[in-house]
Structure prediction request, 198 residues.
Amino acid sequence: MYENLKHWAKENGYVLKDKIDWDWDRYKDWIPSVTTILQLLVEPSFEYVKRRYASEVKIACEKGTKIHWDAEDFFNGDSEEIHKQIMKFHVLYNVKIIWQEVKINVNWFQWTIDMVWELDYLFYWDWRQDMNIDYKSSMNESKKYFLQLMGYKEGNGNDWAILYLNDKKFKLVFVPPEYMELWIELREYFFTLLKQWQ
Prediction:
């Protein structure tokens, strides 16, 4: 059972946990978040970095949080500060924001997504598409993020992209659709473990 997920985890350097953390209920409403479900996948090399360089990781997390809040405040008209790579992305892709930082609860799991935007293909083709996007304040790509965005897609039906960025550049990544099957396996595995936890 869950053989595809186990194989994928091993092949990509993740350890698939066999039990849920005791503090999994981050929103205190007994509904798991996409992030909570993803915590079943542990990346040993990153766990080492978190232990060895805890203060640097904390600074990086705080910077990432600030980038997210600055973007939300900017697009809400509450601030003039925004990361220049996010602004560059919005201008180059002619982004129309549909909504941002909204908590969604669907199919017995929940999440807060950074933004849903309208991808404008009119320059090349005659169509538009609503998409989820998640900002990552690092250029380090992780396939775990692919699963995260598949959870978002299951929740609201939109396709998705990841905007990796640093101070000098950004990269927009569209994830292969086969990750949906892996996400569903991971979600089902979480709920199987949750029954055992209860």
Summary: Residues 54-75 form the longest helix (22 residues). The domain at 3-197 is CATH 3.90.320 (Lambda Exonuclease; Chain A). The two ends are 21 Å apart (CA to CA). Strands lie at 15-16, 41-42, 96-106, 109-120, 128-136, 159-165, 170-173.
